[in-house]
Amino acid sequence: MKFGVFYELSVPRPFDVNERLVYERALEQVRLADELGFDQVWAVEHHFLEEYSHCSAPELFLTACAAQTERIRVGHGIVTCVPEFNHPIRIAERAAVLDIISGGRLEMGTGRSATWTELGGFQANPDDTKKSWDEFVHAIPKMWTQERYSHEGQFFSMPSRAVLPKPIQKPHPPLWVAVSSPGTEDDAADRGMGCLGVNFTSFAEQERKVESYRRRIQNCDPVGDFVNDQLNTVNFLFCHDDSEVGVSTGRKMMGQFQYMAGQLDMAKEVYPTRAYLTAGLLASARKRASSPGDLKEPPEGIAVGNPEQIVRELKKWEATGVDRVSFLLNAAETIPQDQVLASLRLFAAEVMPHFADDSAAEQSRAAAAQPAAMAAVGGGGAG
Amino acid sequence: MPLFGALDLDRALGTAPAIDGLAPEPWSLPGAATLQVSYEVDESAALEVTPPGLHPSIPPYATFSVVRFPESPVGEFSLATVRLIVRAGVRPRGLLIKAFASSAEAADGLRRGWGYDVSVADVSLSRRHDQIRGTVAVDGEVALEAVLEDPEPVLGTDLELFDNLHLVNADDGPLLVQVDPTYEFRSADRGGPGLVFRPDVLGVDGIEPVYGVVAVSCVADMELSAPRFVIDPRVPAIQGTRRL
Fold first, then answer.
1. Is the minimum CB–CB distance between B40 and chain A shorter than 8 Å?
2. What is the pLDDT of residues B34-74, one digit of tens each?
3. Contact B64, B212 (CB under 8 A)
4. Structural domain includes residue A370
5. Is residue A317 part of a domain?
6. How far off is chain B from A147, nearest CA to CA, in Å?
7. What range defines the domain where residue A281 resides?
8. Which of A186, A293, B38, B204 has the highest count of CB atoms within 10 angstroms of its CB?
9. What is the mean pLDDT of residues A327-355?
């Protein structure tokens, strides 16, 4: 199993002070994650989502990540494939540049937005977003792989042009779909795309999704030149030697995240459409946000607590067939930066080895030990 | 932390209804025909009418509804409401700004039983093949006209009508009473929204429509039961909510 970090870039008020701080801290976390052997950094594309996410230009954030790291892969998690948000030519161009700048480390996530806050802001029709997403994901890989490309469709048309530059990963970067609504995992499978699960579901539900995905992708009609059959799920991470501190701090972060999410106008709630059958991640988020929970035990499937507890929960994820887990590390700066960095180090030292082969395990232990030793003499971490 | 409302509670409570206990007899309301038009509204104005314990939604929007009740314990009547959609903690709720009923008996029952801030006015709802229209006229002047253009069938379960919150004076202080009718849908439509809104004539503050979202309508058997939850409007709803 591979591990990554995942950024919404949530910002507490006042924004003019904290936006810069959040970006700087996130980049510091990504540099450390790279050193510690985390495999991917993902960044969302969201607009207008006050506090919840100030990550409206993820390609720029990810470019900074790529420039400041050596190994970690950079993931669009996701680019909104709705014409009012992004023209598909610009998506293909920007992604190719990011692949070049990162030395071929791009993971390309796609999606369609789930909030009225965003769809209404761009005056996009919620009825059409799945259709435009479908048209875009069929076109973008061809823009990358064909010398010239032309298209006539419902949501965009173009005469023959060379879409430049081309990504350096051949035939092209791996393609993913953000999955929050039931059934979207099947859309991913049918198109030969990786499943980027962005909601927090039960193991039973996850097992059902994995089984359905694995079965359907056997007969897929891939939109790209190869099939990406990976399943990635998003989780929270706070790892601490003291179980009670780990669980209570982690719960505080989750509660803050879910409380912020609860303030948004989801498409389903505002605009009745069959294109959005559920409130996405919000239904479970609202339930969790209004439940105090057991402060000594981590919520089912959530990576908060001490290393033993986190290993236990992640082993359950592994058993469901998930290939990757990406972690939200903070929410609106609820957790001080030095604790976030310490949590990453402890995770790398005590949890990662349980999921890696022997050489990788030794590498992550060594990487985690070095900065921790520096921190002990005042050389690492930030307030 | 999300923004909290900035309503001057002392001033608002000066005109809020006084509720007569919180255990009214349920009203059975079969065949109720609802039209609801949603518009995004100016945020700073909306904050001024949002109680300090609630959050505005992001972005804030209001609903303008007209409901015709062909049967009720007080006979046939129509009810129009102007609501601001807010968050009680993380839960979406329709904060009642002002209501208008077509009969004095209905207005009295709704005010005393459920804390509706309701006046008597001419309220009507009509349906043509291409349009559903609800109006409120005050002293012969149309002050609210909500329109659904080009109805298109949807499932009733696709609609989110949200429970109400009513600011009232109760025996032990100010309360937000949660009013949560149930719906058994017979039919539902959606369509393009249209709105004529004259807040000065209606006596409504804090609602400034800026962008039409959607219009929905439905026919449903409704039940208006006794309130189950109340919220102290002075503290965050996540702390101030209690079950009755």
1. yes
2. 999 999 999 999 999 999 999 999 999 999 999 999 999 99
3. no
4. yes
5. yes
6. 42
7. 2-376
8. B38
9. 98
On chain A, the residues whose CB falls within 8 A of the CB of B57 are 263-265
Residue A61 lies in a domain: yes
- A316 φ, ψ (degrees, to nearest 5): -65, -40
Give the pLDDT of residue B19: 86
What sign does the dihedral B43-B46-B48-B52 (CA atoms) show?
negative
Helix, strand and coil in chain B, % to nearest 5: 15, 55, 30
Q: What is the value of pTM for the model shown?
A: 0.92
What are the tens digits of pLDDT across the range A19-30? 999 999 999 999
Give the strand pairing for A194-197 and B173-179: unpaired
Q: Give the separation between CA A143 and CA A150, rounded to whole angstroms.
A: 9
Segments of chain B scoring below 50 in pLDDT: none
Minimum-distance CB partner of A286 among B40, B85, B90: B90
The domains of chain B, with CATH numbers, are 9-243 (2.40.400.10)
In a domain, A383, yes or no: no
ipTM comes to 0.94
Rounded Cα–Cα distance for residues B204 and B82 (Å): 9
Question: Which candidate from A49, A263, A272 shows the least CB-CB separation from B55?
Answer: A263
Burial class for B180, CB neighbours closer than 10 Å (0-12, 13-18, 19+): middle
What total of structural domains would you count in chain A? 1
